[in-house]
Automatic annotation (TrEMBL):
Keywords: Membrane, Transmembrane, Transmembrane helix
Name recorded for this polypeptide: Oxidoreductase molybdopterin-binding domain-containing protein
Superkingdom of the source species: Bacteria
Origin species: Mycolicibacterium madagascariense
UniProt cross-references to PANTHER family, sorted A to Z: BLL0505 PROTEIN, PROTEIN-METHIONINE-SULFOXIDE REDUCTASE
Transmembrane domains' residue ranges: 45-72, 108-128, 149-169, 175-198, 248-271
SUPFAM superfamilies documented for this protein: Oxidoreductase molybdopterin-binding domain
Database matches in CDD domains: SO_family_Moco (cd00321)
Entry-linked InterPro entries: OxRdtase_Mopterin-bd_dom (IPR000572), OxRdtase_Mopterin-bd_sf (IPR036374)
Amino acid sequence: MRSEPPELDENPRHGFPAVLWRTLENHPPPGLSRIRWRSPLRGPWLTSVFGAVLLVVLPIVIITGLLSYIAYGPKFGMAIPFDVGWLKLPSFDWPSNPSWLYRLTQGLHVGLGLIMIPVVLAKLWSVIPRLFAWPPARSAATVLERISLLMIVGGVLFEIVTGVLNIQYDYIFGFSFYTAHYFGAWVFIAGFVSHVAIKLPTMIRSLRSRSFLAVLRTSRADTVPEPLDPDGLVAPDPDPPTLSRRGILAVVGGGALLVAVLTVGQTVGGWTRHLAILLPRGRSYGNGPNDFQINRTAATARIDPALTGERWRLQLLGGPAPVVLDRAALAAMPQHTVELPLACVEGWSTVQTWSGVRLADLAAAAGRPSPGSAVVSSLERFGAFNHARLQRNQVLNPQALLALRVNGADLSLDHGHPARIIVPALPGVHCTKWVASIEFREV
């Protein structure tokens, strides 16, 4: 139900707005006048509680998402989208220490984004009368509020739907997920910031209007509607309560906790990984020592097995002359073993023990011991994933390897046999599999 419109100034200068208001008021869209919002729980306080939770958590989701974009290397043209105009973020060399950095930031981004879905839906439920208010605006201020509301609601729903689908299914969109998700994020950010600026004073007043502990002690029988509010969230003629406010808080909190239990294992690992039943990479894939997550199989990447056998050679470029090494030559070089996480943009991560040749040693063997960067090329056919550019600090990190083995066994074909890149804190997509060449560059 909407609240009564405010008194209109009868000054002739306001004649047209007054006529427009009355015309819109008297001619609502078909069926809108019959909608009744009767829940006795809706009101500024409950909406503000959900809003306060989102105000704390969503900035973390936003910041970690933007950090993921930077980790993908926009200065090298590897971040998608690359050409973002004035929305380009300040770029810097993504740190290669600590090794769990990307696992943490992307795990928080995806994990908290999923956990907040019940809270987002509850917040939308709590303000739905406002979304259907008619006329939709009464002044320039309310026009701005409605625009910010449209951006934040549309933006968050788009980000949630596309994000969840991208986690569950590979490459199902008829458009670039990364491009759409990036620009959609900025629409949401703009709506979020402007909406907070407009509604923060109202939220603070509403939260102070009653004690949270008192609400938790109030039973369903003692639950009464909040006082009527100017935004029309409180129903003037509510139905009897079927749930207390503490009940709805428990339902929403329990839903968020359930999502956490069913998803967090994909990042945390260990025994919790078996609980990650909502996410396709929550469980392990492979055999024996290679029994861990696979994002793209060799078949998906269209890898020709004949090119990964005895015929395979690694080319080292960028020095005085090309250097060609077979697998036996690589195995004869000093071998190093590291325990490092492999973390992907979809939020999953896994920690394995990798063995192989340091990239720094390969750079020295190529004749460029202090490269400014390196371009790794793969046998893979997908243009977006068949190469990656590594920064100087990533190449020279003593834990950065051209891995030949994992957990004491040769890499399986699906995990990148005969050789793959493993670099601390690097997004998994840039830990290139089926490596064919490495070009060490001066800059």
